[in-house]
Specification:
- With 259 residues, the chain is of the alpha/beta class.
- It is built from eight helices and seven strands, in the order βαβαβαβαβαβαααβ.
- Helix 1 links the parallel strand 1 and strand 2.
- Helix 1 runs parallel beside helix 2.
- It starts with 8 loop residues before the first strand and ends in a 9-residue tail after the last strand.
């Protein structure tokens, strides 16, 4: 399918690896020029160069932490005039409710709620002026079905979801859509980290931890960054202009909901 976005410009945050990289790869395959961001310069440059070679698109890199004000300024400057924004950031560490204090919540909010809002506020007005734009926020299945040990993520990402619910309906009339992608378990470093925590807490092997989690996924496996990226690219396409303020689960059926 021709997504109709060849020649567009996209900012993809946290895109040196994992789900962000999957989104960057899928957009590049559709002919979209990229601004790629991540905290680690070496991994970022390596991924960007591979995408340039494989897809022939322009790729600008910005090594910065978008959870900080300075990082946001650098990314926004590089992304001036962009048509597509993919918000993404690593999730806060797992734990129990007694473990977290105010500083922990502030850090989670900065990375997973306030940074995406700052980028939306900076870049969406230009999209509205041009009459076309796409924003996709990578959040989590936990905004639909909270996960006890991910209380920091539950809180911050649900806050962003509420913001998007209202904002998306205010900008849709200008040709700009804002939606959220809610990943379940995918084969990424984040999954490795969470599986490692299960190994420590239960005293089991890594293979046993993964088998235990896969047993709770009707699809019987972890997702891939490629299929996640394809879903993101579709939401960014010309064909998705009537999808507004939605929360799309990509979890292999793990979250059992009727609506």
């Amino acid at each position: 399918m021709d997504l109709g976005i060849k020649g567009k410009k996209a900012l993809v945050c946290a895109s040196s690896k994992g789900l962000g990289l999957g989104c960057a790869e899928a957009l590049a395959a559709a002919g979209v020029n990229l601004v790629m961001n991540a905290r680690g310069a070496e991994a970022l440059e390596s991924s960007a160069e591979r995408i340039r070679q494989e897809h022939g698109v322009e790729v600008v890199t910005v090594a910065a932490d978008v959870a900080t004000e300075e990082g946001q300024k650098l990314v926004i400057q590089a992304a001036e005039g962009c048509d597509i924004l993919v918000n993404n950031a690593g999730g806060p560490p797992p734990g129990m409710w007694q473990d977290w204090d105010r500083d922990d919540f502030i850090q989670a909010l900065d990375a997973n709620m306030l940074a995406p809002i700052a980028l939306i506020k900076a870049l969406v007005p230009g999209m509205m002026e041009r009459g076309w734009g796409r924003v996709v926020n990578i959040t989590s299945q936990s905004v639909r079905a909270p996960i006890g040990v991910l209380g920091l993520s539950n809180s911050a990402r649900t806050g962003l979801t509420g913001y998007v619910a209202g904002t998306s309906r205010q900008v849709a009339g200008k040709g700009v859509t804002i939606n959220n992608l809610l990943p379940g378990i995918h084969a990424t470093d984040r999954a490795d980290s969470l599986d490692g925590a299960v190994v420590q807490s239960k005293g089991i092997t890594l293979d046993e931890a993964r088998a235990e989690r896969q047993a709770g996924i009707p699809a019987g496996r972890y997702g891939t960054r490629e299929e996640f990226g394809a879903a993101c690219a579709f939401l960014c396409s010309q064909h998705a202009g009537f999808i507004v303020g939605q929360n799309l689960l990509l979890d292999g059926g793990a979250t059992n909901l009727t609506i």
